């Protein structure tokens, strides 16, 4: 007799994110072969490329948006990047001026002659 939920029947699956660090065999198993470039790249190479792209952004809000997009598309790479570059990336995530400039930009959009409604 079982009490509560039978844990052996519960299966929690996370959505599989295509990642260039996965080997060809893992890509076949996850059925993501062909969804990413064919070369297999290490996390170190991916992190190096991300840091270069982050440095190319001019304003803090652009950097924040880049990191937000990275987090949405590759969670593992984002958190590894944050862990390895804690002192450089944390201020960008928590940067108050980023939020101020975002709200200012949204305010400018809504006061334009042909305003774009960002809220439902």
From TrEMBL:
InterPro entries: Aminoacid_DH-like_N_sf
Cofactor(s) needed by this chain: Mg(2+)
Leader sequence segment: none
Keywords: Oxidoreductase
Highest rank taxon of the organism: Eukaryota
GO terms, molecular function: malate dehydrogenase (decarboxylating) (NAD+) activity
Entry GO CC: mitochondrion
GO biological process, one term: malate metabolic process
Keyword Oxidoreductase set for record: yes
Protein name, as recorded: Uncharacterized protein
Protein's organism: Monilinia fructigena
Top-level taxonomy: Eukaryota, Fungi, Dikarya, Ascomycota, Pezizomycotina
């Amino acid at each position: 007799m079982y009490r509560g939920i039978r844990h052996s029947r519960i299966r929690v699956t996370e959505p599989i994110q295509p990642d260039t660090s996965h080997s060809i065999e893992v890509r076949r198993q996850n059925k993501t072969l062909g969804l990413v470039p064919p070369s297999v790249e290490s996390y170190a190479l991916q992190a190096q490329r991300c840091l270069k792209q982050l440095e190319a952004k001019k304003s803090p809000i652009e950097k924040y948006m880049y990191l937000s997009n990275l987090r949405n598309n590759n969670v593992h790479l984002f958190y590894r990047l944050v862990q390895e570059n804690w002192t450089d990336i944390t201020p960008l995530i928590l940067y108050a001026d980023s939020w101020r400039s975002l709200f200012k930009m949204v305010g400018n959009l809504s006061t334009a002659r042909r305003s774009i409604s960002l809220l439902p």
